[in-house]
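Need tokens for this chain, all 653 residues.
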Amino acid sequence: MKPLSSTLLPFIICATGLLANTSYATAPDPFGEQRARYQQATAALESGDMERYRNLKQDLKQYPLFPYLEYAELERSLSGASQTQVDRFFAAHGDTLLAPRLQRRWLRELASRNDWRGLLQADAKMPVDGTRYECLVLRARLNTGDIKGAYARAADLWNTGESQPESCDPLFDSWIAAGLLTSDIAYSRFWKAVDNGRLSLARYIDRYVTRSDQKAITGLLLKVSANPGLLADKSLLTAKNPEQGRIAAYGIRQLARKDLKQSFSLWLRDRDRLAIDDTRRAELDTYFGVRIGKNFFPDHEQQMQRLDPDYRYPEVTEWRIRNTLIRRDWAGVLRQIERLPKDYQEQDRWRYWRNVAAEAVGGQPVKALKDNFAKLTAERSFYGFLAAETHNLPYDLNDEPPQFDAKLLKRLEQSPPFQRMSEFLNLDQEYPARSEWNHAQTLLSPEERHAAAHVVSRWGWYDQGIRGAISSKQWNDLSIRFPQPYRDLFDRYADGRNINRTWAISIARQESAFQAKVQSHAGARGLMQLMPKTASLTAKRFQVPYRSSAQLYDPSTNISLGTAYLAQMLERFNGNRIHATAAYNAGPYRVSQWLEERGNLPLDIWVETIPFDETRNYVQNVLAFGVIYDVRANRNTSMLSPDESSQLALYRP
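Here are the structure tokens for all 653 residues:
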């Protein structure tokens, strides 16, 4: 066990009233009866039983969610509402997020009525941000005779690389019919759409490009887009027209998706031959440098000498270093780190590798090397913990326990926005609770935002507490950034699967920040972010009761299956947690492929050269989180097992 740093002080609750570690669930429930009536009132309103609704509503005027009842009631009859009714709502609830929400809904209603004067009057009282609503206001001007005012913003709104809301179409149609859309404006928007990756929009815009010279360029771009291989013909593009360099950059980038080597060859041929602006050149140089670096071609360094001989691009240099690490050319690693900008050199990552390389090369005093590693251990990071582990030095968490006056916490907790958040959470409605949180953040000072994160964390809203610590930049407040919910479940299932429970907790912390009902864009669900197919296969293998993907939002089911899948990955990769962690994120097939390609590398070099940025950061975070959790719990702490440590570059130079 590594000794704890002297900077790790216990979080002591002082008599003066600092943050107490009190569970929200044990506090009295002042709104239990009203909450039930609110649910009944909501049901009555939805069913149209207005008499019952109004009777229930009378006793809810002091209930935190009363504004939501009034909003729902007004929205239900908005088609027949008047500005007076809307103004009355604003007067009563103008300080809530419901006021701008109602205003947006009201402006759309007035537009549907063609009440353009009413819309202008309403907008003057409470302007609303957003292109959709700006277009409604401009249409109102157009329909009330202010044609000049309506057209004043039309060109800027139309000339964008994105499709605009349908509410803008009548304005644009009128503006175009007035003959104000020129070929120059259309040509400008064409390129904005291309640069934004919206080729279908560019094709649509092309109909408005009428100048013959511009039409020739747009036609050539669309031709190259359909068949980037045409760029192999050197005579297709010349340096006479700067826009042809733009076509080359676009087409070569498209070709790189199918044929990296051919596109790179064309790029080296054309980047100096054609007129390509500095920004696009830097973007494509960096793109190819990183893409080629992640493929670990045998001739990588020769290719980089052609692409970036002067080490102009830090991201490319980083991948040059990683390729040099694979060859274990330690002198080369040192030379290349020196070519990084100073701010890059001072990052934990490159300080670690500079120290490892210096020790491998030799020639430096032993004390100087030890001092360099000791300085690195002051960082709470994967590399700082590696330095501590390899040199038997303390882990330094740089923990800064918060000290809030109890009055501040109580004031926040009793404020209307936080009471509304709490009630929505009690009703199991996290989305509106999160909306209330986001709105409250705009009203709080930095200190209050930090305190607010502690308020919601002690309610059990851990993921929002973590986000609150991050948004208030309280990186060293580990009590809120690293909570341990569902401890009994993790203990039970991790022990049952014979895996390290801290490892499982760290996976959940990285995957979901302990948000039990979250679903990713890819479809992964719950605390440990399991895909339904993976969950189903794992349930069959480990005989876990499982009927539908909805069960993945249940913490017990999710942790049971998540720890089972971790155990499966650990078995598949021969007990190596680093490989198993990478497989949990990127999939076992990819990790097997990486091991086949680079499996004989020292373990820290293997992690450093994971080609997926997300997976590399994921593995490093999970391992570092494990140290933080174990040190804070005063458990025996080691980021790596003895077998894993023996596979580091320091011991396998």
